[in-house]
Amino acid sequence: MVTHHIPSTLEETLKLLETNLYQVMCGGTDLMVQSRSWANTVPKLVKPLVFISQLSELNFIEETPDYIEIGSVTSYETLLNSSLVPKVLKDTIIEIAAPGIRHVGTLGGNIANASPAADAVCTLIALDAIVEIMSSNSIRTEKICDFIIGVKKTTLKPNEIIRSIKIPNVEHDYANFYKVGGRKADAISKVSLCVLCNVKDNIITKFRIAFGAVGPKVASNIKTDELFVGKTIDEIKNNIDDYTKKYASLITPIDDQRSTKEYRHKVALNMIKAFIETL
Ligand SMILES: Cc1cc2nc3c(=O)[nH]c(=O)nc-3n(C[C@H](O)[C@H](O)[C@H](O)COP(=O)(O)OP(=O)(O)OC[C@H]3O[C@@H](n4cnc5c(N)ncnc54)[C@H](O)[C@@H]3O)c2cc1C
């Protein structure tokens, strides 16, 4: 038997977390895999659980002039069915796992789990999303790229919960997510890329890239992105190798059961080239 609470309000949840004794569980699609034990035995959980997927205060999608705000327990399936969710985020979600997992998996879990291969995190970093974090007596916001600090590491404290994710409400001329996995569905990324780009009069006015599974956390560098801004599409295309290589030092993958570092490095750079060729 797993010791657990199923609070009916956010207030009750935050009070429980103040004791620092509990871990939150939302869809459980990362946590249960990480805690798995022998078949038909109790999972090896580090702490008793507080379930949060039932909290209506954290299940919402709202639009303001500045942001699309998504409650942290809103399921991927709900996001796929919302007209408010940016298309590039939906294109990313449809590449995550399979329908069963998407009915319970959440952005809150994808972010808090802080895997370098987390697909939604890759796109949310490119989108410059902001994470809103709550405890019983505080509320704070942090850019998602600062909130995640390493492999499975975030700035979240034991008494805090992710309340929502705020995505700047801006349009992009190009917004693409690319993922290479071992098969077409239900595969963790070997390497992934989200790229956003705006073009006016043939000149690039915004360029933003994030790479998944190429380092200890989803990788991005605004200074490198800015090297593309102000350039004509012809300038970039005529020097495609030079521009692509500007990201080479950002891509520092490892060998693991899914892929090799050489493959990941080469494919990540090829993905940028493939995108540039679509401009
Ligand atoms: C078969 C399978 C395939 C998968 N495929 C993919 C894939 O293709 N791409 C991908 O990116 N992921 C994939 N995943 C991983 C997983 O589905 C996602 O990361 C999912 O978004 C996790 O959300 P969750 O609600 O299930 O998190 P949970 O498992 O409930 O929680 C994960 C972690 O986040 C914490 N947490 C959860 N919600 C909050 C919150 N609101 N505030 C603070 N902390 C919180 C928990 O304490 C835990 O540490 C897959 C998983 C499985 C089992």
Provide a descriptive summary of the structure in words.
The protein has 279 residues and is of the alpha+beta class. The chain folds into 2 domains: 4-168, Uridine Diphospho-n-acetylenolpyruvylglucosamine Reductase, domain 3, CATH 3.30.465.10; 174-277, CO dehydrogenase flavoprotein, C-terminal domain (Enolase-like, domain 1). It is built from 12 helices and 13 strands. The protein has a 5-stranded antiparallel beta sheet with strand order 4-5-10-6-7. It has a 3-stranded parallel beta sheet with strand order 1-3-2, with helices on one face. A hairpin with a 2-residue loop joins strand 8 and strand 9 (153-154). Helix 4 runs antiparallel to helix 7. It is globular, with a radius of gyration of 19 Å. 39% of the residues are buried.
